[in-house]
Amino acid sequence: MAVPKKKTSKSRRDMRRAHHALDKINVVEDKTTGELKRPHHVSVDGYYNGRQVTTDKVNR
Question: How many domains does the chain have?
């Protein structure tokens, strides 16, 4: 089994993990309802890009 020869410092450990943070989710205002939604997703009332694509309510 491989065993490290030296202790990894907190600075080196944290620099390695610098890119592990979660990205913020981008939200836009829906044209029809004014609610916030994720871009390129169907809104709650079934609209996408300003036109109705489904008659069912989208569950969240």
Answer: 1
